[in-house]
Specification:
With 279 residues, chain A is α+β, with helices and mostly antiparallel strands. Chain A is built from 6 helices and 9 strands, in the order H-E-H-E-H-E-E-E-H-E-H-H-E-E-E. The longest helix of chain B has 24 residues. Classes of the chains: A alpha+beta (279), B alpha+beta (301). The interface between A and B is large, with 74 and 83 residues.
């Protein structure tokens, strides 16, 4: 690194302190808000983007009575409610992003709550836009990637296009009375639960992949899944999967070619009193 | 304890005059602080314990049983009324509902938060500080006493050869160590910590009640439906917190915002939603220095 590129932190601090020593003129400018860390803000800026505003989207969708009762196959009403809540929240998030002239939202925090009679989805992230401006995209992208992952993805020639989401709930069918009695003293797979989980998983993953294609994505990165029985209905299992749909915008994938480093730090040194005795 | 500067306890004045500095910084943060030309002066704190009630004079709970009585909102405060589509059904039927911003709750929070902050600033000013770094704030409810404790803590510093801030009021930031150094190097000077709280009370009307309890009720739908009243209340509380914090920015930026939404359910659809938003108010003092593209690395261990 050349001497010119080294920043004198003390001199910068002094400049900063001097800037606060004078009262700024009253401003009616709209203050920018962002939940990005300083590292993320710097990285984004280096990649040609800047944060615009903190944006959110919330949707609460009802689940009618009786939906979780015993049955067979997929609990379609609950799956529809879940996917509707995600879609509603994403739509609101996109609208907020458009309102502040953002081109997309990064670092979206996804919070989902599944209750007996309603499902709520809350999305909060930071809207960003390119430093050089440019035309607004027809629909801003929504991504749960951190700003670091976003810049890395961009460097590799890819771009996030939207949040891909899929959910499915399925009944684990009742065992016959005979099976239940027989299995009571056996260590045995409960195939009704395994099959219900497989069914829910396949539907949810398929929906997620389809939603990625719907927004123009080629695939989904950083997929997260949740699965298991519903705490309020143990005979029903749920599976949700979500991630960021991405598409290749460069001609080909750009290889990142990382440097390999070998840290020479000592391993963690812990104090052991018996070492003082020697030998 | 009032906000007046002459209000420091006598023991605090003695402690601040003792000559030894104290700091809440870790050793790496302490080293980074010295590297920036910041001299730590003392660990400064502020406390305030508030009575934290949801009912009381002026509260919306006292407005009566209809949306027309006593629920006058202050200018610009959020309020939405929902009306039953069924007409008179019974005296138990929820013929109206309302989403209401609880300005009196927000006011109480701001008072407690602001008082503990200004008490910390008072200690820092008494030390002749230019700023307070590594600020930690905590809002905790004291068990079963209906009270809330606000606590601020930070390390008062001076900038070597630097001028005092305008008006002599020290600047503050949650940042310290390398994160503060990076902010300064990037051209962002901390102005103050900024925080706000918004609170919205939801009184469900019949349709919200039916949807939230799954009942088909009077004309309740049998398929999934968006619960508009609750969705709007959740959106509103976040937007209000953002609006309140933006009013403190005067055109500056809020970095590293942390947002927390807490919901308390009271009955089907009836709930109170609180949202707290806090972050670092920063001012740009030079053009942003573009960071050269970082080199990705793979670590061999």
């Amino acid at each position: 690194m050349s001497d010119e590129s080294i920043i004198d932190a003390r001199a910068e601090m002094l400049s900063g302190a001097k800037s606060l020593a004078v009262v700024p003129p009253p401003s009616k400018a709209r203050g920018m808000t962002s939940d990005l860390s300083i590292d993320e803000a710097l990285l984004l800026h280096g990649a040609g983007w800047e944060p615009v505003d903190l944006v959110c989207g919330v949707s609460v969708v009802s689940v009618p009575v009786g939906v979780w009762n015993w049955g067979q196959g997929e609990i379609i009403v609950a799956s529809t409610a879940h996917n509707g809540a995600v879609e509603g929240a994403s739509e609101q998030l996109r609208n907020e992003c458009i309102k502040v002239h953002g081109h997309g939202v990064v670092g979206v925090r996804v919070e989902v709550e599944v209750r007996t009679h309603h499902i709520s989805v809350q999305l909060i992230g930071t809207a960003i836009r390119p430093l050089e401006g440019g035309p607004h995209p027809p629909a801003p992208f929504v991504s749960d990637l951190s700003a670091r992952d976003f810049t890395l993805l961009q460097g590799a020639g890819w771009q996030p296009v939207g949040l891909a989401f899929g959910a499915s709930f399925a009944y684990a069918p009742r065992r016959s009375a005979g099976d239940a009695m027989k299995q009571k003293t056996q260590n045995i797979e409960l195939t009704n639960f395994t099959e219900a989980m497989y069914s829910a998983r396949e539907s949810a993953m398929e929906r997620m992949q389809r939603s990625a294609l719907d927004v123009g994505g080629e695939g989904v990165v950083q997929v997260k899944v949740t699965e298991g029985p519903m705490y309020f209905a143990h005979h029903a299992v749920g599976f949700t999967a979500w991630g960021t749909a991405v598409k290749l915008v460069a001609d080909t994938h750009q290889f990142v070619q990382p440097d390999v480093i070998l840290p020479l730090d000592d391993a963690v040194v812990t104090f052991a009193a018996q070492n003082l005795r020697g030998g | 304890m009032s906000d007046g500067p002459a209000d420091l306890p006598e023991a605090a004045v003695r402690r601040l005059d003792s000559g030894a500095f104290s700091s809440g910084l870790t050793v790496p943060d302490f080293a980074a602080c010295l590297d920036l030309g910041l001299q730590p002066l003392g660990l400064v704190q502020g406390f305030c314990v508030m009575r934290w009630g949801w009912y009381g004079a002026g509260s919306g709970y006292m407005r009566g049983i209809n949306p027309y009585g006593g629920a006058a909102q202050s200018d610009g405060a959020y309020s939405e009324v929902y009306r039953c589509p069924h007409g008179f059904v019974s005296s138990e039927h929820r013929m109206w509902g309302q989403n209401l911003e609880q300005t009196w709750v927000e006011g109480a929070w701001s008072e407690g938060y602001g008082a503990s902050y200004s008490r910390m600033i008072e200690e820092a000013t008494a030390l002749g500080a230019h700023g307070v770094i590594g600020v930690v704030d905590r809002v905790s409810h004291l068990a079963d006493t209906g009270t809330t404790e606000f606590h601020f803590l930070g390390t008062a510093v001076t900038v070597e050869d630097g001028p005092p801030p305008a008006g002599g009021v020290p600047w503050t930031t949650y940042l310290a160590g390398q994160r503060l150094t990076k902010s300064i190097e990037a051209g962002f000077m901390p102005v103050s910590v900024a925080a706000s709280m918004a609170s919205v009370r939801v009184w469900a009307y019949c349709m919200t009640e039916y949807l939230m309890e799954g009942s088909r009720g009077w004309g309740g739908p049998t398929s999934p439906n968006e619960v508009n009243q609750v969705s709007k209340a959740h959106m509103a509380v976040i937007q209000l917190a953002r609006k309140h914090v933006r009013q403190q920015l005067s055109g500056d930026m809020l970095h590293g915002a942390q947002i927390e939404v807490v919901k308390r359910e009271l009955s089907q659809g009836d709930e109170v939603i609180d949202c707290t938003l806090r972050g670092n108010r920063m001012r740009r003092f030079k053009d942003f220095d573009v960071v050269p593209p970082p080199r990705p690395t793979v670590r061999l261990t």
